[in-house]
Design brief:
The two termini are 45 Å apart. With 333 residues, this protein is of the alpha/beta class. It folds into 2 domains: 29-110 and 211-332, D-Maltodextrin-Binding Protein, domain 2 (3-Layer(aba) Sandwich), CATH 3.40.190; 114-206, Periplasmic binding protein-like II (D-Maltodextrin-Binding Protein, domain 2). It contains 15 helices and 10 strands. Strands 2-1-3-10-4 form a 5-stranded mixed β-sheet, with helices on both faces.
Length: 333
């Protein structure tokens, strides 16, 4: 039989535990972060949400989907969000216009894309005089469309028009009606549009070496990083663990990808997983070569700007995590 003294001790312990739990939960920092795509390259962002990785690192985070990295960057510049996904092109363009953005980590440093064309287009010459559809000017689809054309020996905007047609649904409709003859898309998309007369003309997988491009980058402002460095570090830790989850837990990752992309086609899911699991970086440094390419492009449009790569890349948190053994520990689990 429990004595009164023991009962009081138990009651005191339980009360303390409840108080401690409440304090721990209420003490978690509340944040909203954004990602710009539901495709596999961005999977670590919604895996971090889905698997409670933000909570693991003492944060109460809401992840929101804002289509197109250019829009994500605009929201960051406006101060409406503190942390989100940016690409090298959008970060560089904003920086030369005066924004104080900085990429603190990059989880994929290349562009995994295919150029989907009408089935009648068999050669690059048959693409000449036609149009490629992209989501937005300055977006990653815009960047890779220009890369593909240069790779094919065609001049963007002169030999082939690049037009803005919106999201994937709008691009599919424009392609179906013949308004555009081609559009860049992540690997596996061809399997989702069965019945449309189409083929892959060229893929970045065919390049001799991966095209260097900071694609899925944790981005914030210099001022937020300076005053909230511990928070930014925890965000990078959660997203880095999200990459580890994707790389090491295939079937569960495919289920999460299916949920967020709303595609259950197994051929697509398998292709998307296999390609992106290889391309997501274990240690999320920003490719300075790729950022330099994008910055030079941005500076050509703003010749008076003096922005340098070091102004828009801060690898110190990733360096710190690597030195502390955080990433090695993840992959030894």
């Amino acid at each position: 039989m429990i004595t009164t003294k023991i009962f009081r001790l138990i009651l005191t312990f339980v009360s303390f535990a409840v108080f401690a739990l409440h304090s721990d939960l209420s003490g978690q920092e509340k944040l909203t972060v954004s990602y710009s795509s539901v495709d596999a390259p961005s999977a670590n962002w919604y895996i971090a949400q889905e698997k409670g990785l933000y909570k693991k690192y003492a944060m109460d985070v809401e992840s929101i989907f804002i289509p197109a990295s250019s829009t994500n960057v605009a929201v960051l510049v406006a101060g409406q969000l503190k942390f989100g996904n940016g690409t090298g092109g959008t970060i560089a363009s904003a920086a030369v216009s005066g924004a104080n953005l900085v990429a603190v980590a990059c989880f994929m440093n290349t562009l995994p894309y295919e150029l989907i064309v009408q089935e009648s287009i068999k050669t690059k010459e048959q693409l000449r005089g036609k149009s490629i559809g992209i989501s937005r000017i300055g977006s990653s689809s815009d960047v890779i469309a220009r890369v593909f054309l240069k790779h094919l020996g065609l001049e963007p905007d002169k030999d082939v028009a690049i037009i803005q047609v919106g999201g994937s649904g709008e691009r599919a409709a424009a392609f179906r009606t013949g308004r555009i003859a081609a559009f860049p898309a992540p690997p596996g998309v061809l399997h989702l549009t069965k019945g449309m007369p189409q083929r892959v003309l060229v893929s970045t997988a065919e390049f001799q070496k991966p095209y260097p491009f900071p694609y899925i980058c944790g981005t914030t402002t210099k001022s937020y990083l300076a005053s909230n460095r511990p928070t930014v570090k925890r965000l990078v830790m959660a997203l880095t663990e999200g990459v580890h989850f994707f790389k090491t837990r295939k079937e569960e990752s495919k289920k999460i990808l299916a949920k967020y992309s709303r595609h259950n086609d197994e051929t697509y899911l398998e292709a998307a997983y296999e390609i992106n699991a290889k391309l997501l970086d274990r240690v999320p440094y920003v490719t300075r070569e790729g950022m330099d390419i994008q910055l030079k492009e941005a500076l050509s449009k703003k010749p008076g700007s003096t922005v340098k790569v070091d102004d828009i890349v801060d690898d110190s948190i990733v360096t710190e995590l690597e030195r502390e053994g955080f990433i090695d520990k993840l992959y030894k689990q």
